[in-house]
Amino acid sequence: MQNILVIGSLNMDMVIHLKEIPRVGETVMGKLHGYVPGGKGANQAYAAAKLGHGVSMLGKVGNDDLGKQLIDNLSNVGVDVSNISCQQDETSGIAIIYINEEGDNSIVVLPAANSACDTDFIANNEEVISKSKIILIQLEIPLEAAYLAIRLAHKHGCTVMLNPAPAPDSIPDEILKLVDYLTPNESELEKLSGTPVKDVDTAKKASDILLQKGAKNVIATLGREGAIWVNKDGSKVFKVEDIEVVDTTAAGDTFNAAFAVGLSENMSIDEAIAFANKAARICVSRNGAQSSIPSRSEIC
Description:
Elements: E1 2-7, E2 11-18, E3 30-38, H1 40-50, E4 55-62, H2 65-75, E5 84-87, E6 93-99, E7 105-110, H3 119-124, H4 126-130, E8 132-137, H5 143-155, E9 159-162, H6 173-176, E10 181-182, H7 186-193, H8 200-212, E11 217-221, E12 227-231, E13 234-238, H9 251-264, H10 269-283, H11 296-299
Parallel strand pairs: 1-4, 1-8, 2-6, 4-5, 8-9, 9-10
Antiparallel strand pairs: 2-3, 6-7, 11-12, 12-13
Helix pairs in contact: 1-9, 7-8, 9-10
C-alpha cells in the first residue's frame, strides 16, 4: 500500500518579484525571478517525498518540454510518478506568481493539461486510490473530479485530506461529510464559511460553521499566527516562532504535506500540526515553490 497519494495539479511557475502587487488598471515594474516547478499537487507530493516519506502523484501534464521537466523534478526526489499521464493535445499548466517586498503573493493559474484531470481520469484510477492510506487533494483540477476522488477515497476507507485551494464559493455538505481533515488558509476559510476571518477567534467561529456542514476536523493556517485545529471536542491554537518572511508561495503546500507525513507516521494530530508548522516556517524564509521546501533533517 502506498502511504500517501496526492491527487492534483502540476504547473511550471513563472515567478515575478515587484514592490507592490498591482491594483486593477495599474501597471508596475517587476523582475523575473525564474521558472520553477510548482502546482499545488506537485508541491505537496514533492514536499512529502523531501520530508522522507513514500508518496505517489496522480495528475496530468502536457505534451511538451515543461511536462517532462515537471515529472523529472518529482522523480528526482523520490515521488512515484507512474500515475502521472501526458495529455497529448495540451500544454502543461502554468502559474504566474507575483511576490511583493513583504513576501506576500498573488497567483494566476492557467490550468491547461490539469483540466484533463477530469472525472473519467479519476474513475479510471480508482484502483490507485484504493491502494493508498492517505489521499491529499487540492482544487486546481476540475471540482467534480476532486469530489469524485473524495467519494472514491472514502469508499475505500482512505483518510481524506482536502486542501480547498483555490476555494470555490462553496463545497457541498455531502462532500464535507467525507473529509477527515479540511485545511484552508485564512482567505479560503473566510470564503467557504461566509464569515470574516481576522484573527484566531474569528477563525474558530468560521471553522465551527464548516463543522456544522459536516467536516470532521478543520485545521486552518493563519500565517504568522500559526494554525488552529477545530473539531466537535473544541479547538487548539498552534503558534509559530517569528521569522523573516521572504516568500509564502509554497507555505500552505508544505504544511499540508508535512501534516500528511505526520499522520502516515502515526504522530498524534498535535504532533503532526507542530511538525507541519516547523516545515512551513522554514519554507517562508526562502524563495520559490518546491525550491523552498525543507528536508527532514532541517526540521528534526
